[in-house]
Write a structure and sequence with these properties.
heterotetramer; A: alpha+beta; Alpha-Beta Plaits; 2 domains; four-stranded antiparallel beta sheet; 10 helices; elongated; B: alpha/beta; Rossmann fold; six-stranded mixed beta sheet; binds adenosine-5'-triphosphate; binds magnesium ion
Chain lengths: 295, 229, 229, 295
């Protein structure tokens, strides 16, 4: 494209947007609201993923050591636990420490009892794993060791947690794809209608001897501008909304709601929304014209 | 310049032929009137020449090229060599007279200065020197028709096709417009005019092709608007 | 029937008057030609009469009603009493010739049988008996114009306004159309025709109102198409 | 409106939909996807409300009776608790019962201790309230009674729970309103463009002498049909999606996810989506025509 034509195309694009300014604004509006919804949903989805991952990371295995285990068996268990790579953090809790904790929990209820004399609690290991999904399997394996009395990991609850978080992630993905397709459809349809409203104009240009690309460029640039603003505005809105949400969580001390940092999340969103808006603007314009160019 | 051999056209398989057995030749520099009843096929013939539609059978050559063999992407360049006045005007309604005419130059890649110089001059020629900035939809029928004519001649094409270019003009303005076309023709441009205006045809004493129900019923060198039989 | 007193119209405050000091009267049953150069204000006058636009000053009465005082909701009923042929046709492009004419009857609440009987008859009268089911966009310029005429007369209005009704028609068809209007006029309908067609005006020997730059430059009882001065 | 005109309007509406069938389908598509999103979101929102309400209902107050309280004081406490209308269910747990529970919880760890001899646990009341939000207040009030040793209700956790559930409900409401406005905007804009594409047609009808309503009726009916199908289809889709979700929850024994019953939820949705779709279809058509009717 020559520089001359390039200038012409930009000028025409701006003139076109201005000439149909209500339509242009409404089209930007459509792109804004659809991408805003998609963006909001992506934020929620990203955070659910993030939170469930950190919840899952808190799943713990407790291994109770059998009272009658020999020193050798205990050694073996310790060695095994220490070198197992699936286990992140292995902490030994002596029976004495366990008793301290129990006392702290029950408070003055146990007052007057001399449990220290004959401590009923066993030694145990508290284990954090980097692969929470592997917990049930690891637990089963550990139960086989001779030094192990029993293994506790919230059987049932953990499995339920995994079912739910997996389902949440799948549903999230599914909804996100659905929403993205919806956004594509809505934006493309709006841009198509906008182009259709100017179909006669396009046809006439063709009759005067304009090449397809000479006609297309201004429309493509219009689409680019529409798509760009249609993506930037919801990003800006989401930046404020999400920032406010994070502030609210912090100011209410709801730190168990472990939200993604604002900047990172926005970058992640921008990575999807900007190309989507601009791409749809451009392609929507370019391809909607097809039927009018064929004269 | 133009050569039609056994040219035929029907718009649909189930419909009768709109043009049939059309044979004629137009040389460079000729001035030809195409006359005939309403529905005779005049507009269809002109639409074939700018390849708005394709012939059903037969050959139609223009500038030595067979239109049926012309690839899609050559069509814009063909149209730039032809200035056409459409029966239904086909102007960009929301734009000004100036913009409409300028657009025809822009598509050819003309430089801005040249456009700024020539467009007002051409609009002046058709009597619209004072309507440059008026939007097309705010102009009268005759004024719109003249913008169409201005757009057709602004690129100095080697062929001008005018479909009923005086249908919305009073006799005096009509004569001015036809004289304008005649002057352009004298400088070497080929001109084809489809018209119903008996007065003009009779006065000009030019070649007249008479279409009747899609067939050529007469082709006179210095013809008049009258039945050829 | 129609009475204009000091009628004036300009489209915009910054623009000159398109009509000015227009005074005339048309009685029931008259047949009037309105002639004048392109841009003289003929279409503007007709648009005023169907209240497409409002006068800037002066009064315009039709059927005894002052158009400036007519409330918005009465306008459709005014238009049903007027059959108008528009210079730019204004047909429903995607619908058939039949549907276009039938629509004008449907709006008046005509019964289905009456529509089915009269529409083909009227299209036959304008020479389109074989094009009933053709979509408007598939018809020639002259054919479209005749659909517009058929639509204008189908309701047997008491006033017919025709803006350039023969601009796209050959002389023979034009004469037929004008004779058709003449016949309708003889049965009592008032007819106003804005036209450029010198031949027709001269032949008909009817009243001619001559507009020049928005002012009445002549009003002859049995006029001809010529300058009145 | 006469019967004649009524038939005409319906015929014209159907013809109009057919003549512009691609446009009609696309418009239905827009209505479908927007209402589907709105519906999905409403379902999620309704269920979050429902679940949080039932979670909140599980908030319990435990009142520990002071060991040294007199019989009269105990009587008084019992009477007070029984007649307080904010408290739904008041259950007395004797110290003996409490000990049984503790034993069951700690299992064999307490084996060998004769706690029965000198039971360290106090009597208590377990209270369910119909106004979970009132729990902190009620607790404070109860603490004032002489017979009360201490009141336990998960202080802190309950407050957090309320903050989060309140926030969820507010955010849900806010998003729902936003989404509803978005849906209104998207649907209205699409219908407007559809009408604009036929603007010339409308204007011409007016010039031929049609009254505004004569022109409007077919468009209004078209809008009604568009809106009706645009609301019915997402409702049908949601019926299947939600049914599947409920089945999945049941079949995975995730009964703690206490979802609303399918029929009730769908009726609730239909109550909003059908009027929204049909209303927008009708009003969108009727009002978009304004500018073309003014000739
Ligand atoms: N797109 C189309 N599809 C089907 N038939 C068409 C189409 N265009 C034109 N026709 C038919 O072809 C015939 C010739 O049309 P054409 O426009 O060439 O006539 P014309 O000589 O220009 O007439 P006029 O003087 O009225 O403009 C007419 O009968 C018309 O109905
Ligand atoms: N909507 C409008 N806005 C502004 N100016 C207009 C508008 N319509 C017409 N005019 C101007 O008013 C003048 C008269 O227009 P009108 O259409 O009445 O002319 P006419 O006599 O019908 O001409 P023609 O024979 O060319 O159809 C013209 O100069 C035209 O440019
Ligand atoms: Mg023609
Ligand atoms: Mg006019």
């Amino acid at each position: 494209m020559l520089f001359n034509d390039f200038c012409y195309a930009w000028k025409e694009a701006l003139k076109g947007l201005y000439r149909n300014r209500w339509l242009s604004l409404a089209s930007i509006g459509v792109v804004v609201v659809t991408l805003l919804m998609l963006g909001l949903f992506m934020l929620v989805s990203l955070n659910i993923n993030f939170i469930t991952t950190s919840v899952k990371d808190q799943v713990e295995i407790v291994v109770y050591v059998a009272d009658d285990a020999t020193a050798a068996e205990r050694e073996e268990l310790h060695a095994l636990l220490s070198k197992n790579e699936a286990l992140d953090e292995v902490r030994f809790v002596s029976r004495a420490e366990a008793l301290q904790r129990l006392k702290a929990q029950l408070g003055n209820l146990l007052e007057g009892y001399d449990l220290d004399a004959e401590n009923p609690l066993p030694d145990s290991y508290e284990i954090q794993t980097s692969l929470p999904e592997a917990v049930p399997e690891v637990a089963q394996e550990l139960e086989g060791y001779p030094a192990v009395e029993s293994v506790y990991y919230g059987r049932g609850v953990v499995e339920n947690l995994f079912t739910v978080t997996n389902a949440l992630q799948w549903v999230g993905l599914f909804l996100m794809i659905g929403l993205a397709i919806t956004a594509v459809f809505l934006i493309a349809h709006t841009i198509r209608l906008t182009v259709y409203l100017r179909g006669r104009e396009i046809t006439i240009m063709k009759y005067v001897g304009a090449t397809n690309w000479f006609i297309r460029w201004p429309f493509v640039l219009e689409g680019l501008i529409l798509g760009f603003w249609g993506a930037i505005l919801p990003l800006a809105a989401l930046y404020f909304i999400y920032g406010a949400a994070v502030d609210w969580v912090v100011s209410n001390n709801l730190l168990f709601l472990n939200l993604l940092p604002v900047e990172g999340a926005m970058l992640e969103l921008a990575k999807y929304l900007l190309p989507l808006g601009i791409g749809l603007g451009i392609l929507g314009s370019a391809f909607s014209m097809g039927r009018f160019l064929r004269v | 310049m133009i050569e039609a051999v056994q040219l035929a056209k029907r718009y649909d398989k189930n419909q009768p032929y709109v043009l049939k057995d059309v044979n004629f030749k137009v040389e460079r520099g000729e001035f030809v009137f195409i006359v005939g009843q309403s529905g005779a096929g005049k507009s269809t013939l002109l639409k074939l020449l700018i390849r708005e539609i394709l012939p059903t059978s037969g050959t139609l050559k223009i500038f030595g090229q067979d239109l049926r063999l012309m690839p899609e992407r050559r069509v814009p360049y063909l149209r730039r060599n032809i200035g056409m006045v459409f029966q239904d005007f086909r102007l960009l309604e929301e734009r000004t007279a100036y913009e409409n005419v300028a657009f025809a130059m822009q598509v050819t890649g003309a430089v801005a200065q040249e456009i700024a110089r020539r467009v007002p001059a051409v609009l002046e020629m058709v009597g619209l020197g004072d309507k440059l900035e008026a939007r097309v939809c705010d102009l009268s029928g005759g004024e719109q028709q003249r913008i169409g004519l201005a757009r057709a001649i602004v690129n100095r094409p080697s062929l001008i096709l005018a479909d009923e270019p005086t249908g919305n003009l009073d006799p005096d303005t009509s004569m001015e417009i036809i004289n304008l076309l005649r002057n352009i023709n004298i400088r070497g441009t080929t001109v084809l005019v489809a018209t119903h205006d008996r007065e003009i045809v009779d006065r000009m004493q030019k070649r007249v092709i008479h279409l009747e129900h899609g067939q050529i019923a007469g082709d006179q060198k210095k013809g008049v608007y009258a039945r050829a039989f």
